[in-house]
Amino acid sequence: MDKIQLIDTLPNVFQNRTDVVSDIWNQRVEFEKGKLYLVEANSGTGKSSLCSYIFGYRHDYKGQILFDGEDVRNYSVSQWTDIRKRHFALLWQELRMFPELTAWENVEIKNKLTGHQTKEQILEWFEMLGIPEKLNAKLGRMSFGQQQRVALIRALCQPFDFLLVDEPISHLDDANADIMGTIMVAEAKKQGAGIISTSIGKHIELPYDKVFNL
Amino acid sequence: MKLVWKLLRQHVSIPQFMGFFFANLVGVVIILLGVQFYNDYQALDQEDSFMKADYLIVNRKIGALSGLTGKSNAFSQSDIEELGNENFVERIGAFTPSSFNVRARFDVEDFVKFSTEMFFESVPDDFVDVKSDAWHYEAGNEEIPIILPKNYLDLYNFGYAQGKGLPKLSEGILGAMKLHIEIAGNGHSDNFMGRIVGFSSRLNTILVPESFMQWANAQYASSDAVKEPTRLIMEVNNPTDERITSFLQEHDYETDEEKLDASKTTFVLRVVVSIVMAVGFVISILSFYILMLSVFLLVQKNSSKLENLLLIGYSPAKVSFPYQALTVGLNVLVLLLAIIIMCVVRSYYLTMFENFFPDIVAPGIQPALCVGVVLLVVVSIFNIIAVRSKVMSIWKRKE
Lengths: 214, 399
Known about the structure:
Chain A is an alpha/beta fold. Helices cover 34% and strands 22% of the residues of chain A. Chain A has helices spanning 47-54, 77-87, 103-114, 119-128, 144-156, 174-191; strands at 3-11, 28-32, 36-40, 61-67, 70-71, 88-91, 162-166, 194-199, 210-213. By secondary structure, chain B is α+β, with helices and mostly antiparallel strands.
């Protein structure tokens, strides 16, 4: 997948609003593989909705979202499964982890499916992000900031053309945010992938190709 | 998959599944036992493999004076048609008697020789339950297939042989022996070999294939000797039907009451077994309902986990698999246990049967196995589809 296009996309709930001023809603927007994007938003402007639409989780919008020119509304279940497994990694704002499993198991459940990363690589990331001792801790017992780091590692355990990170550093200090940015960019470069990051306020400092105001 | 199962087994309610397991076990055991018991009973009843239980043989009552008055005890064509038109009759056929002389000689181990005058009768071939190649006669063949009444064998074994100290004969030995038959009439006389196909306890006549009878009557009977049948054979759809008894009384016909009773017993047994199996079936359906409810509850409780798995790239098929495997596994376990229980119970009642009927050969358990496997497959397919559609509803719950 090389290109994501949004054509006159607007959440259904915004349909009757006349005051929508946005770089994305009701515009023609293009995200290209290999580039870095930042989407800045105030709360209530539909940031999580945007992520859900692009990821095929929700479809309550009007207008079009195209992957390489194909309308994703026509995607079949198996196409979406393939997209989520091989082309599109998403770090959810609400993480969507499994608190019953350990940090390691949370990563492993994804890596077992894709077989993409080596154990050494995963352990190295745990090390880099300062949570190696949490490897076998139940995820439910970890702080949100720690969980965020595990969620990023999980998101990277798959091949992708785009990495979409929804408020990845909302609970992280600047040092950890920088490490996270380094890992993300390195991994994206390796695969020639694009990164779309969102934030309300705090964002990772990266050489963004384009910044949108939602 | 191990991790997925670790995740999805959360909220699995052991008591609920135990409830399903035992309820379904009871249902399946009842169904399997019903099928197997009926099948085993049929094997007992199949003592006479040549005549089905629903066949009745009808003749006119012979009164004290009928011989003197010269009134015929034969059935006319219109009598047969009248009976054939009754609702309770499925099929009707006439006994054709031989109109020639038959003499049979039978040698046992060289030193005993029986020789007797006898007669033949035939009924339409489709009333005789013997493989067609064994019950077949071509004009001019030397060998004639014969079915003898079992009484004859009993008379010899328990009367004659007992008294004279002669060896007793089994059906098998007799079947291997040859019967020398001499047929004479209409100026001809020929020798034939009789091959005993079997013994019938339901039929007290000496039965030959209809094709032989037609040929021999044409060959050896004098032309004016066309006789009307004195006995009829009929298949009835329900031997307990009151109309049969009243019709027979009205027309002064009679049939073997004992046979009618045996048919009644079989019929009643069939009804009872059907009811019992229906109860088993209802129990099974209800237990299936319990299983579906607890699986749905489980899917509901774990819906966020299932959704997250779908969102990290697990396909609906992969996410459905653990619960499908769980339900199908339970079904298989129930079937295996049910078969074991059925076999244990069966060995008890077979011992009882064997006390009454020492030579009974119990049939296999294939009928129960077949029913069990069919049940398993049908229920499992339902389970698999239900789980899958439940997972798909989670997939679609995005709007």
